[in-house]
Amino acid sequence: MKKHRSKIVLIIRICMTIALVSVILASIGYFSLLKYLNNKNLTANFANFLQEKFDKPVVVSSLEFHFPNEILVHDVQIIDYGPDHYDQLLAVDNLMVRYNMFKLIGKKFVIKSMYFNKPKIKVIRDKDGNLNIPTLSIKQRESIADEADKQEFKFDISVDNIGINDGQLVYKDLKNNISHAIYSVNTSFNNLDFIEDTEVSFGFISRNKWGEKIIESQILGDGKINFANLDWEKAKIKDTSIIIKFFKEPITALVNVENLRNPRISFQGNIPAVNYTDVSIFFDSPFDFAFPPAEIYFDATLKQEKYLALKDMVVNMEDVSFGMYAEYNMSEKLLDMQFETNKFNFANKNNWFPGLKGLELEGVGDINGTLKISETKKIEEAVNIKLKDIKGKLRGFTISKFSGIVDIMDGFKKVTAQLKDLNFDIGGQSFTKLHGQFELGHNKMFVNLPSGLFNGKDMKLSFYATNLNDLDKRHVNMAADFETFELLEIFDTVGDFGKGVNPKYPNIPKKPMPHEGKLSWLRNFRAKLPKFIPNIKGVVSARQFITPSISGEDFNLEVDFQNLKPGMDKLSGTFDAQISNGIIYKLEEFAANDSAYNVAFAPFIMMHKLEKLGSFEVGTILKNVPYDRIVLSTNFNNGAMRINNFLIESIKIPSTVSGWVDWYGENIDVNVWTRFTSSSSAGAIAESLTDETGKPAIAFRSKGNMYKGIRTELVSSKSVRTQIDKATEKGIRTDFSTSEKFKKGGYNVKKK
Fold it and tell me: Is residue 65 a contact partner of residue 42, using CB atoms and an 8 Å limit?
């Protein structure tokens, strides 16, 4: 729209020049008639006069004098040439002038009407920045005199009415290689006065190229113009009503302009409802929108016919008021703007942004920013949004409270947020009082939450993901610390986040499980593994650790996995975990239902079976097994887990395991050593079931398929104490220092 306004100003200036030229031509035509009463001489003198005044070649087909008060001029051409161009400045099919012959006696040349039929004007700015429009003045015009007597005549000239029919105006900027054109120009000046106000009406069609498409709009208007005796810096356009037909409904406006050389424009308009389809030709938007009708006010300045600057712009839409400053570079077709709005109420804005439907947004925000839009549809922006008491729903997320600051930049491709007091629910889990920061953009995501609550208990989390757009190459680096780590809660929450972030995330129901019966625990675990973080490296710690089968304290985990996906068939990497002071629950019950559980805690299960058979008479019931520490250090390769060290330290029953477990193929081959640290006096123990110190012990190898059956063979138990001591000395390959640094704020997940 700004482009059209600048063109209007240029058209008015050109029309005034035409009017002036026409006045001059008509005056000279009359005086020529006094000396030469034939059309040939009149035509020649008319052409000579134009050539003298414009200093350019002129061609006139014919000039006819119709006594007593009419002059007709046919096919006028003023040729424009320069070092880098050759074209027509002005071409008119015909010009008709009617004047008042009785005013000539008083040396007044009063033109009653002047009509231009199909005028064509080409305004050219050369490579040096100069326009081809000549500078003219009408304060005094010299008449043509006969060279024989050299007599001068001075006349007052006035024009009542000027009309333009079906005109064209072309503007070419050779310096910046741009062009604009308007067609079907129809203009009239009533009671023309170069000193006082003149009534004007106009209409034209603008067709301009934007990118690869042609934009067409029709502009109509009527108002007043003051030529200020052609002093363009003082000239004004007053109270001009304009109708712009571009959208489905027209834009209406009231315009005032001062200084037609470098126009200062005051604009009050009404813009109809606009949606993204209406303006998609100008730029690509990452979201759909449908704005309601708006009132718009602004002051603008056209600088050197190249820049259109808007200031003090206000746009009112329903309950929202926008303030804006903008500058449009016409040569580069670049829009640069700054904007702001206070107390933007998100409620009831679903009609503005169809993508918001169903979000049930509430709350307010202060929005300000900058926006740059180029002809290539490239968008650069910096949008700052201060949010307060935001509520809403997004897929599986229900936000009950959120305040913070959001920044949008880089063509709406990057979003950052400073989080303050964020509360939301996802699935059956609750996150409250979250503080931190969020970044999304350039194929990366960063979440840092140094404080918050998970299901009412303390937590902190840092999460950095790269290659977001490539599922196979996506990598996550994370650190988390919990007051309580409840495995099933965490597992379900990860899945709920996956579905919330990615709607295509597989919707696997929690109940019933996809697999039932034998090995259901393992197969359901593999099936429900998240697919949206295939490559993950991170640390997790917790003061309390809870699962249905095991609990403990001081839980620490370090993991570096590749190809972590449902099925586990390509899973590779490392896994190290440690937990202290806990209990292993319901050995017999879990072992009966899950072979995977049977594998994990084979030492205790085997000891429990032997105890029940009477092989051991140590007076211990192995229903719930306490432990001091559990250490697990493993390597994974295509779903198979190599056990570097699996140690269960217990004051009563220590044990260690080595070997490998293929979780994908459901095969195992492990060696197990376990012992009782004390024995009862209730009977003798077979020597084969004691270690080198005489304590009750057992060693065995378990091998086979978890589903088809695992074969267990007893081996010599004499080295059990030694094997356990070695495992204790070996411990775990990490000291979990990364977790400790994270707890203290000294670990950055962005660091490679």
Answer: yes
